Amino acid sequence: MRLAPAASIAPSRIRAIAALADEHPGTLRLFYGEDTLPTPDFIKQAAHAAIDSDRTYYTPNPGYPELRDAIAHQYQQLHGVPIRREEVVVTASGMMAIHLAVEATVGPGDSALVVTPLWPNFVGAIQVAGAEAIEVPLALEPDGFRLDLDRLESALRSNTRLLALASPGNPTGWTASLDDWRTLVAFCERNDLWLLADGVYERIVFGNNATIAPSPIELPEARARTIIAQSCSKAYRMTGWRVGYAIAPPEVAPTLAFLQEYAVSHAFGVAQEAARVAIRDGDAFLAEAQARYARHRDLAVDRLRQIDGIQVPVPDGAFYVFPKLNGLNESVAFCESLVRERRVGVAPGSAFGEGGEGHVRICFAVDELTLLDGLDRFEAGWRAFRDRGLST
Q1: What is the DSSP string of 115-130?
Q2: Which CATH number is 5-39+284-381 given?
Q3: Pairing label, strands 194-198, 132-137
Q4: CA distance 365 to 353
Q5: Rg of the chain over all Cα atoms, to the nearest angstrom
Q6: pTM above 0.85, yes or no
């Protein structure tokens, strides 16, 4: 029997490398986007208390009111804009926030612009909704990645309804300035597009004493057409807890909550309470984590720049480096060889769409010894791969 079109979506190439690593014990796992340190104790203790107080029943579709209030308050403090509870929908992961936002804004016969290289689940969510994803790559310059408005204008079609991107970006670390957001919002206004902005890494930024990345929500003209997708996974080391949220215009937020009813109903109540405590009490932890990531970023960039044939854009945010390997045109084959021959796993750049081939993504949110060992193995693997001539 014939399956629906969504069943033809290609599986994740990141997960394929992970599966290969499972077959080769001892592989250093620098392909996943998560810290190797556990969730902080104060968050786990909140979860224990939530279990003891029986936060195990159904919750409201948009989440517990206390958590929504905490999110609204935090966003107001961080970005200087008033956010109401009615604009916040707690979701069962950041991916669910993206899925709901896409489902609410595009469908069969529509298209969406996606700024790449980008986490592949964005394109997958658009395809699952029956729409076409049009990838628009960032420009790579000697000093890093840059938004290319001309490429966006050229990619636009009469059926385009949505612009989706992430800042800070995964895998590039590219981070939109407030001027970039003004340009993007004006582009969306001119062309009557929704704007889906993934801010999952906004608390992991580097340089100029920054503590948070700019957000389009800071622009009054953006509020009516912008949906923010967020998660507790990266900032609070809660990747497995599966709790995120969306911030949307008040007339759109109820739609996201209703749509969640037909997917997973709601986020797990215990995880919601843990997230509330993380948001309330997590500032000191976030500062410590950001300082650690900054050290690891500098270590990774400096180490990779010592290797011939590699261009290393310095990430402004998130916890990845995305080096370009000169002459590489089969990043999957190279990453497979690293696992088999060197027992180190990194993500192939082609997994992240247009502009990604020829790169690899290396997560530096691991302990320092693992990172140093992984970079040594990576260099040895790259030299051997290049010497065999398999990259040309």
Answers
A1: EES--THHHHHHHHTT
A2: 3.90.1150.10
A3: unpaired
A4: 23
A5: 20
A6: yes
User: E strands within the chain?
Assistant: 28-29, 88-91, 111-116, 132-137, 139-141, 144-146, 160-166, 194-198, 226-231, 244-247, 310-311, 320-321, 324-325, 344-345, 347-348, 360-363
Residue 6 three-state SS: helix
Nearest C-alpha neighbor of 313 from the set 358, 353, 354, 351: 358
Q: Report the C-alpha gap between 147 and 16 in whole angstroms.
A: 30
How does residue 135 score in pLDDT terms, banded at 50, 70 and 90?
A: very high
Amino acid at 374: G
Handedness of CA 306, 328, 12, 19 (dihedral sign): negative
d(CA 63, CA 265): 10
Instruction: Tell me what the mean pLDDT of segment 67-92 comes to.
Output: 96
Of 79, 90, 140, 155, the closest CA to residue 314 belongs to 140
CATH of domain 57-280: 3.40.640.10
| Res 391: pLDDT | 45
- Reference 338, options 389, 288, 377, 301; nearest CA is 377
d(CA 55, CA 47): 9
